[in-house]
Structures are given as structure tokens and as C-alpha cells.
Amino acid sequence: MSTGPEHAGETDTDRVITVPNIISMIRLLLVPVVGYLILSGHFVAAFVVLVLAGFSDWLDGVIARRFHQTSKLGRALDPAADRLFIFVTLVGLCVQGIVPWWLLIAIAAKDLLVTACLPFMFRRGYPGFPVHVVGKSGTFALMYAFPLLLLAQIPGTPGEIAYVLGWSAALWGVFLYWCAGAIYLHQFRQVLTGTVGASGPGGTGSLPPNPPVAA
């Protein structure tokens, strides 16, 4: 998600065409591909695409930090690609009967709840919630749970191992996802009550002080 007002400007460039942004755009283009592969039953191919997407998610972050190419567009593209991959993959897995629908509902409910807070944040000069390590960890767990659950469709011991590891990662990811949601709701309450802290988005879940809204 986007950062708070004070940290939203901490980018290295305003350029749109950067290597990390190109990688994120390619990852976005792979979203319908993985959806088609899952729905058409090509689970191994979908597994490969998801692994590549997870690797690209890590790679664009490394490149952005090392070569000072973080940008406002990149801060929007990266989480958007993550959430689209999670949503499309989950829908495909649910349709194929690989995972139950409650898993999709549990994940979507948190995103809908946090998204509903954003208009109130915007009115008070906050472009969104600061990225929190708990939320990133939850997303990471889910992004790696789904390839394992696809691999679990392979008969035999490898599939059984992938099933156990995949569900372990999925349940852990949902737990962390909702922990992050609780942190964002706490930040939202701080904004509404005017008790915003100054510790920033590190590990405490506090937002930076609210600046004047730009004209």
C-alpha cells in the first residue's frame, strides 16, 4: 500500500519508465495469464508463472533500492500487482475446488475493510496507510502458498508435502494479513481522533504527523 504523507515523497525519481516499474508492469500482464492457466487446468504452468511472479516481486524491490529507482508509480504498481495476483489466483483455485471459498472471503474482507477507510484518509491529507512489515510478510506467505497448493495437485509424496506446506503458508498468511489489517485500523482510528503518532511506518503501526492538504 502507499505510504503516509511524510514518507510518500521519499522516492528517488519521478520517472515512469524505470527497470523496477517495467518489471511490475510485466507482472501485472501475467495476472490474466495465471488466471487462464488455473481455470484451464494447466496447474504446472500456472505454478511456474506464480514462482516467476514471486521472484520478480523480490527483484524489482532489490533493483529499486540498490539503484535508487524508487518512484511514486512503483509504490502503487507493486502492491497492486500483488493483490491482483492473490485475488485472481484465489478465484481460480476456488473455482477448481482446490481451496474453499472461505479463504477468498477471509482475504477479500480485510482488503475491503481497509479500502473503505481510504476516502476518510484522503480527506485528512493521507494518501494511504504506511506499508507495514506484517502486511508484507502476510502477502509474501500467500504469494508462496498458492504455487505450493497448485503443486499439491501432483500425485504422490511431492504433492502431499506441497499440500502441507501450502496450507501452512496460507493459514499463516491469512493470520498476518489480518494482523496488518488491525494495525491499519488502529492507524485509521488515530487519524479520526487526531492522535497520530510521530514514529512513522516502521514497526509500531503509527502514522507520521498530518501535513496540510496540498492545494
Automatic annotation (TrEMBL):
<feature type="transmembrane region" description="Helical">
    <location>
        <begin position="134"/>
        <end position="155"/>
    </location>
</feature>
<keyword id="KW-0444">Lipid biosynthesis</keyword>
<dbReference type="Pfam" id="PF01066">
    <property type="entry name" value="CDP-OH_P_transf"/>
</dbReference>
<keyword id="KW-0808">Transferase</keyword>
<keyword id="KW-0812">Transmembrane</keyword>
<keyword id="KW-0443">Lipid metabolism</keyword>
<dbReference type="InterPro" id="IPR004570">
    <property type="entry name" value="Phosphatidylglycerol_P_synth"/>
</dbReference>
<dbReference type="InterPro" id="IPR000462">
    <property type="entry name" value="CDP-OH_P_trans"/>
</dbReference>
<comment type="similarity">
    <text>Belongs to the CDP-alcohol phosphatidyltransferase class-I family.</text>
</comment>
<dbReference type="InterPro" id="IPR043130">
    <property type="entry name" value="CDP-OH_PTrfase_TM_dom"/>
</dbReference>
<keyword id="KW-1208">Phospholipid metabolism</keyword>
<dbReference type="InterPro" id="IPR048254">
    <property type="entry name" value="CDP_ALCOHOL_P_TRANSF_CS"/>
</dbReference>
<dbReference type="InterPro" id="IPR050324">
    <property type="entry name" value="CDP-alcohol_PTase-I"/>
</dbReference>
<keyword id="KW-0472">Membrane</keyword>
<feature type="transmembrane region" description="Helical">
    <location>
        <begin position="80"/>
        <end position="98"/>
    </location>
</feature>
<keyword id="KW-1133">Transmembrane helix</keyword>
<keyword id="KW-0594">Phospholipid biosynthesis</keyword>
<dbReference type="GO" id="GO:0016020">
    <property type="term" value="C:membrane"/>
</dbReference>
<dbReference type="GO" id="GO:0008444">
    <property type="term" value="F:CDP-diacylglycerol-glycerol-3-phosphate 3-phosphatidyltransferase activity"/>
</dbReference>
<feature type="transmembrane region" description="Helical">
    <location>
        <begin position="33"/>
        <end position="59"/>
    </location>
</feature>
<dbReference type="GO" id="GO:0046474">
    <property type="term" value="P:glycerophospholipid biosynthetic process"/>
</dbReference>
<protein>
    <submittedName>
        <fullName>CDP-diacylglycerol--glycerol-3-phosphate 3-phosphatidyl-transferase 2</fullName>
        <ecNumber>2.7.8.5</ecNumber>
    </submittedName>
</protein>
<feature type="transmembrane region" description="Helical">
    <location>
        <begin position="161"/>
        <end position="185"/>
    </location>
</feature>
